[in-house]
Amino acid sequence: MSLLTLLPFIVLIGAMFLMTRSAKKKQQQAIEMRNQMQPGSGVRTIGGMYATVKEVSEDTVLLDAGPGVELLFAKNSIGAVLSDEEYNQIVHGIEHDLKSDGDLVPDDASSLTETGEPSDAATDDKPVDFGKKDAADEPSDAVDEAGAEGTAKKSDGGSEAK
After folding, report:
1. Calpha distance 110→96 (Å, rounded)
2. Dihedral of CA 70/75/76/79: which sign?
3. Taking the CA of residue 56 as centre, how many other CA atoms within 13 Å lie in the half-sphere pointing to its CB?
4. What CA–CA distance (Å, rounded) separates 114 from 45?
5. How far apart are CA 139 and CA 133, in angstroms?
6. Residue 73 has what pLDDT?
7. Helix, coil or strand: residue 125
8. How many Å apart are CA 33 and CA 94, to the nearest integer?
9. 66 Cβ contact partners less than 8 Å away, ≥ 6 residues apart
10. Spatial separation of the C-alpha atoms in residues 151 and 138, rounded to whole Å
């Protein structure tokens, strides 16, 4: 057999070796991460639940998911051990690293438009009518297109019965 015949098999075996090596590295990193867990650290399970570690044993972890809620999980069901800042930001919405202590954007935009003097819309107390106007309220140039009777047009969609 020639070297050209064996080359595809060698490449295939090399690719399989590299894939299993990277998978073993990831698995080893996950084991190290789970071994670094200690009571008080925040974790995310593989199911997406965030909790605080209460106790760690050899194969299991006791998690505190809320007031009076303690859950027992297998150690390998922990997806990630989070830093304190990351856990507080996700669970409690607390951010420790504000980049600037300057002006913050307010929750509503009303404070951005206030100028100190009242606007015309605020002083106008007349109610706004968004309904259709009757034929009597329309100006006199709204005449029937035929112009025969000289009466104003009425809409068909009005609330008045014909």
Report:
1. 27
2. positive
3. 18
4. 47
5. 11
6. 92
7. coil
8. 24
9. none
10. 11
Question: CA–CA separation, 56 vs 39, rounded Å?
Answer: 7
List the structure tokens of 26: 């990831």
- Residue-level pLDDT at 58: 87
Question: Which residues 6+ apart lie within 8 Å of 50 measured at CB?
Answer: 42, 43, 44, 82, 87, 90, 91
DSSP alpha helix (H) spans, 2-146:
3-35, 84-91, 110-113, 120-123
Strand, coil or helix: 76: helix
Q: Which residues contact 155 (CB under 8 A, 6 or more apart)?
A: 132
CA end-to-end distance (rounded Å), the chain: 99
Local structure of 71: helix, strand or coil: strand
- For 6, the token pair is 């064996």
Q: What is the mean pLDDT of each run of 10 residues along the chain (162 residues)?
A: 84 90 87 85 90 90 90 90 85 64 62 62 68 64 50 56 54
Q: What is the DSSP letter of 75?
A: G
Q: Is the CB of residue 41 less than 8 Å from the CB of residue 81?
A: yes
What pLDDT, on a 0 to 100 scale, did the predictor assign at position 105? 62
Question: What local confidence, expressed as pLDDT, does residue 55 receive?
Answer: 92
